[in-house]
TrEMBL record:
The keyword Phosphoprotein appears for this protein: no
UniProt GO molecular function: DNA-binding transcription factor activity; transcription cis-regulatory region binding
Name of the featured protein: AraC family transcriptional regulator
GO CC entries: cytosol
Domain HTH araC/xylS-type positions: 171-268
Key words of the record: DNA-binding, Transcription, Transcription regulation
Any Pfam family: HTH_18
InterPro entries associated with the record: Homeodomain-like_sf (IPR009057), HTH_AraC (IPR018060), HTH_AraC-typ_CS (IPR018062)
Length: 276
């Protein structure tokens, strides 16, 4: 196999997505499940990240932060003098990382590094990949090589890549629901999709300390959070796309979960310069 190429099922244009996050007020988000690995560069203000049993990490403007799929984190976006939190980054499917690690295993010095400086070459690699993702005319092989270059830069900065592996039913259920969050899910539907009875589904989730309704509610509200931060879609549209019957239902669930309303969180649609 040619190690420089991704397999068809891990096509980089389908498996890597460019995103921009923005907020107009400081907010702290507890127990956020990271559904896809995410590499972010802070453009304005700062970010705090804390794992369940770890110290808090502060990420300053210009630094990168690496959030791994499967982690549950406490994340804060803290507004600075600019009056707005801005970050940009890449959401990366595990298939891309898995294929990369077959050719480039983590070196002995690699560790669970969370953040770091984005030196010139690293920053250029990021910019080149973003340009490739936004340029359909570029050959896919070029985009693939640029993705691998960026992952190599992370390794050189001491970051250990890893593929999320979990047999927990709550994670399998979460992945199922996230793939069609607007669907009016019921426990029997999810059980059939997971090839088990409803009773088995409920018992297994109870043993894991959760329930079907709790997982569904969290998937819907965290999906809405992502859309609020990364799009300018109307809140009513976001509510429907995330399975809520109305914008008011979304606002109620959102404030209960995060202690802030969607309207308060959302930033004005103010463009910002991309990485040069």
């Amino acid at each position: 196999m040619d190690g420089s190429r991704l397999s068809e099922d891990a096509n980089v244009r389908q498996a890597v997505r460019y995103v921009e996050f923005r907020q107009c007020c400081s907010a702290d988000f507890q127990q956020l499940h990271i559904s896809r690995t995410c590499l972010l560069r802070i453009r304005s203000s700062r970010k705090t990240v804390q794992c369940v049993a770890g110290a808090e990490t502060t990420v300053q403007r210009g630094e990168f932060v690496y959030l791994r799929q499967g982690e549950t984190l406490r994340i804060g976006n803290i507004i600075g003098e600019t009056g707005q939190y801005l970050s940009e980054g890449l959401v990366i499917d595990d298939a891309v990382i898995k294929q990369f690690l077959r050719v480039h295993p983590n070196p002995p010095h690699a560790r669970e590094l969370r953040k770091g400086e984005m030196a010139c070459g690293f920053r250029d690699a990021f910019s080149h990949l973003v340009a490739s993702l936004r340029s359909p005319a570029l050959p896919d092989r070029i985009t693939t090589h640029r993705m691998q270059e960026l992952l190599l830069w992370l390794q050189l900065n001491g970051v250990a890549h890893r593929v999320h592996a979990s047999d927990a039913l709550k994670h399998r259920l979460r992945a199922l629901l996230e793939n069609d969050v607007a669907r009016p899910w019921k426990a029997p539907d999810a059980a059939r999709a997971l090839a088990m009875s409803e009773a088995t589904l409920r018992r297994a989730l109870s043993r894991e300390g959760t329930s079907f309704s709790r997982v569904l509610r969290d998937v819907r509200v965290t999906s809405a959070l992502s859309r609020i931060q990364t799009t300018q879609q109307p809140l009513a549209q976001i509510a429907l796309e995330c399975g809520f019957s109305s914008q008011s239902r979304l606002s109620e669930a959102f404030k209960t979960r995060f202690g802030i309303t969607p309207g308060r969180l959302r930033a004005m649609p103010k463009p910002f310069a991309r990485i040069a």
